[in-house]
Amino acid sequence: MDNTSKFPLVVIIGGGFGGLEVAKKLADAPVEVLMLDKHNYHTFQPLLYQVATGSLEAESIAFSLRKNFSGQKNFRFRIAEVSAIDSENNLLDTTIGPIAYDYLIIATGSTTNFFGNKEIERFAMPMKSIPEALNLRYLILQNLEEAVRTTNKDDRAALLSFVLVGAGPTGVELAGSLAELRNHILTKDYPELQKEEMKVYLVDFLPKVLGPFSDEGSNAAKEFLTGMGVEVLLNMKVESYDGKEIKFEGGKSIKTRNVIWSAGVMGVVPEGLSKDNLERGNRIRTDGSLRLNGYNNIFAIGDVAAMITDKTPKGHPGVAQVAIQQGQHAAKNILHILKGQPTEVFEYNDKGSLATIGRNKAIADLGKLKFQGFFAWLIWMFVHLISLLGFRNKIVVFINWVGSYFSNNGGTRLIIRGFKREELSKKDEQVSVPD
Amino acid sequence: MDNTSKFPLVVIIGGGFGGLEVAKKLADAPVEVLMLDKHNYHTFQPLLYQVATGSLEAESIAFSLRKNFSGQKNFRFRIAEVSAIDSENNLLDTTIGPIAYDYLIIATGSTTNFFGNKEIERFAMPMKSIPEALNLRYLILQNLEEAVRTTNKDDRAALLSFVLVGAGPTGVELAGSLAELRNHILTKDYPELQKEEMKVYLVDFLPKVLGPFSDEGSNAAKEFLTGMGVEVLLNMKVESYDGKEIKFEGGKSIKTRNVIWSAGVMGVVPEGLSKDNLERGNRIRTDGSLRLNGYNNIFAIGDVAAMITDKTPKGHPGVAQVAIQQGQHAAKNILHILKGQPTEVFEYNDKGSLATIGRNKAIADLGKLKFQGFFAWLIWMFVHLISLLGFRNKIVVFINWVGSYFSNNGGTRLIIRGFKREELSKKDEQVSVPD
User: Fold this and answer.
1) I need a surface site. Which of A57, A186, B20, B50 has the fewest CB within 10 A?
2) Burial code of B227-258, b = ≥16 C-beta within 10 A, e = fewer?
3) B89 backbone dihedrals φ, ψ, rounded to 5°
4) Eight-class DSSP state of B315
5) How many Cβ contacts (< 8 angstroms) between chains A and B?
6) CB B263 within 8 A of CB B165
7) Which residues are listed as membrane-spanning (chains A, B) (predicted)?
8) A416–B64 CB contact, under 8 Å
9) What's the maximum distance between 2 C-alpha atoms anywhere in chain B?
10) Would you list the domain boundaries of chain A?
């Protein structure tokens, strides 16, 4: 693809929280913007877990990137994956051919980190994208279906055991959501099952849940979870999982057909950059201006970036707020460069952390203000609703939540393209049954 | 699966319009009910075309069968496909093992009929289920994406040509919906494309669109379509389609990468029944009581059934109303049999036909009352909204429609699990890209 305009071309790889902000901020700038993403939609990752448990339809937490920028004259979009960056020639190698750039924003985000354990990677379910959340939903629902027709007690128990590895916000929210499924829905949908048969375990190698939260928040979260019937297992390190039994260091093990892995992430980095540019967690090291060391025209933002300065020796946390603010900042720095002005150093404005456990139960750490329970839950809902792209999505999600709140039986729980168990090991490909 | 209850077991194959009614009607009867379906949801087929064009999310026109019957004490559900009926032993051979029945309701519906043309079957898209409607959506959207980056004029024209074969309600509604996509959305989402580049053709071998409708209705539909820019080609018989060019008898041909086939249906009949039981269109012949000739305990209803009597020598049309009324009637006849009473003959109460072409444009043939245009469109919307299962679905669809009406840019148009073109020929299996 050639840039035939007289303006420099800014190519953004990734339409996540960070990429969106760059494109928006450059709307009226004297540049052309080209966004590449392997999907034609933005994913609102904070609600993926509700797609996984069948509370929300996938399309409510996704928004068409074309539609979002419809009307922005300098914006173009292509579905493409970038395989390599040729930084000497300012050229990308992509699934739709070579693409030249003048400025490059790497906003490729992160994926699940199995820390090199191939067996766990094969059998445990990740949940970092909508297709992965749907696969997880189908695993859960298909295992409930199988449990109904399984008479062997051990097999049935393994089908009805859910082990969540990693007690960060994703693990905590999934645990809460699964506990609500058990407490309120299980016996309505599956009269052959007993509530007590379904077990939810939340496991972490740290001594607390919600590691980066305040102690008050973390303790409250653990109490909420325990009260809902989740077994919280801390200081536990996973040793292996073969699809049937998860084993921990020290000898404990749980027979389960459902292991969900949210114990770590790593940056998604295209080929072509020097390995010297990479930090812990496969993140791309940048300077304070968010540019890669040694490059004038390549920026990295969000989950894939590690801005290493004296003040931020480990970079920033992998959360949406960092990506959003870095996206705005990278765009601002491009505008500075175009005007021949010096770039500015990025400073993160931490607005706090939120996590929900269930109905009326959430944790809000907002600087010195800390809430646990109903008020935190209202804040959580409000912040998530206003952050969703699209008026339709806001309304549809709101209706789903109101419906669930009053009926205690919300959600759709459909298996629209499930998979065969023998294909589970190919889950990274896409594992649908014939239809 | 064994029936350990003291009541006879009624097994219903299929959770479509007919199957649902049987189960509902038997709620308080002295029977056990077991419903089998290959999906865990009911599909509201009349709105499939809106899923295909990205106007509605799939989950709004589907409803969990378990949730629908949650609370009905004598109801059980299993995801299963029935491969064969052993009518001598009252036994079904299914994907989850053998299942014994006392009464059997065959409500398996219909699938696309390619009339034995393997080449067309391989390359043309059907649209009879949600996965098929999603595949069609992905084909449409992926071809628009490909057109944007295709410079060869002929290739681009073929990607942007849509040929709908069969001008029944499905073809007409799809044609209208695609015309609206072109007229209102195309250049907003794809600024690189021109409205005039996209062509929509509606083809039928009959001399009219909406064959079974009144002449007024049929003529109005044709006029609406033509006014929206659809080329209506009548008296045209398809000869071949090789994925690139569709050829008609008489020499005409159109280069197109998008052929959608709604030119015929045929019943989905499990093995094991005598071929003598089959009528034209692979439908199972029944007597006036909806029972198969020679069987006291096997009924067939809806699209898969052809009730052949002196008054109905060809059976009934394959529409939702027939399935619904036959479902209620079959349940009633089972109750009669249980009480030792004679069965009753089914009489169809034809409430009329509806089809929509687009915004403010629909056709309503309601006996002597015939409407075309805005009022018919209001009737169409009202009837479809109240017929949707689930309060949530009603609201979500309504919001989508209101949004589309006022913005002229509704719909989500997401490719959540698309497919690779080279896999198109395997579309009946699983045609998704890795994700």
Assistant:
1) A186
2) ebbbebbeebebeebebeebebeeeeebebbb
3) -105, 10
4) -
5) 158
6) yes
7) 374-391
8) no
9) 73
10) 9-38+80-112+265-338, 118-263+352-414
- Give the span between the Cα atoms of A346 and A327, in whole angstroms: 10
Query: A134: closest CA among A192, A200, A59, A82?
Result: A59
B183 neighbors B195 (Cβ within 8 angstroms): yes
The CATH classification of domain B118-263+352-411, taken from the options 3.60.20.30, 3.50.50.100, 1.10.10.10, 3.30.2010.10: 3.50.50.100
Q: CB-based contact (8 Å) between B129 and chain A?
A: yes
CATH of B9-38+80-112+265-338, one of 3.40.50.300, 3.20.20.140, 3.40.50.1000, 3.50.50.60: 3.50.50.60
8 Å CB contact of A59 and B416: yes
* Cβ contact A58:A32 at 8 Å: no
Distances (CA, A) of B160 to B32, B122, B140, B150, B186: 52, 20, 9, 11, 11
Q: Which strands, in side-by-side order, build the sheet including A32-37?
A: A75-79, A32-37, A9-13, A103-106, A298-300
Q: Which residues contact A170 (CB under 8 A, 6 or more apart)?
A: A48, A49, A127, A262
Written as six digits, the tokens of A91 are: 């050229």
A257: left (phi over 0), alpha (psi -120 to 50) or beta: alpha
Angstrom distance (rounded) from CA B435 to CA A62:
15
Q: How far apart are CA B37 and CA B81, in angstroms?
A: 6
| CATH match of A118-263+352-414 with 3.50.50.100 | yes
Of B191, B403, B430, the CB nearest to A432: B430
pLDDT tens by residue, A32-89: 999 999 999 999 999 999 999 999 999 999 999 999 999 999 999 999 999 999 999 9
* A70 contacts B149? CB cut-off 8 A: no
**Which of helix, strand or coil describes residue B418?**
coil
Query: Would you tell me which residues 46-65 of chain B have a C-beta closer than 8 angstroms to some C-beta of chain A?
Result: 57-60, 62-64
Tell me the nearest-neighbour CA distance from A2 into chain B, angstroms: 11
Cβ count within 10 A of residue A80: 21
Which ranges of A388-425 does DSSP label H, i.e. alpha helix? 391-407
Shortest Cα–Cα distance, A262 to chain B (Å): 18
Please say whether the beta carbons of B197 and B160 come within 8 A. yes
Q: Which two tokens stand for residue A35?
A: 């966004």
E strand segments, A59-184: 62-64, 75-79, 82-86, 91-94, 97-100, 103-106, 110-112, 161-165
> What span, in angstroms and rounded, lies between the C-alpha atoms of B27 and B74?
7
pLDDT tens readout for residues B161-218: 999 999 999 999 999 999 999 999 999 999 999 999 999 999 999 999 999 999 999 9
* Matching fold, domains A9-38+80-112+265-338 and A118-263+352-414: yes
